[in-house]
Amino acid sequence: MRLLISRPHLKKVEADARARAPLEACGILVGKQKDHDFEVLDVIKTSNVMESPTRFEIDPEELYRVMKSAEANGLDVIGFYHSHLGYGAGPSVVDLDRMKFLPNLVWLICDISAEGANFGAFSMRGDKLVELELAVA
Description:
alpha/beta
């Protein structure tokens, strides 16, 4: 399984993460699923209603608007992104708990530090966590 994403989209996620630090940034990944691959065609920044450095929650109204817009354009919400602030690009315990309730979607994590940004992409398949290969174009 792969996450197909452009370098400009990754840069947009990183820029959002840096702009909102020390709080977690979050947003929605819009695109298409092709077989076992997910292709990101748009990255939509959303508010983090929790305003927390370690948790995020997207406003349901924002999510609904993005879903309707994606549908109108023949696309799907394929997942979410959020930032970690120097504690790794893997899912936290909180992330894992939430992923169980939204399986088969992509969770792109951008870990930012002074040294740069690291990315990880994951999906929950049944009760199994799967790391996706990042294919950057």
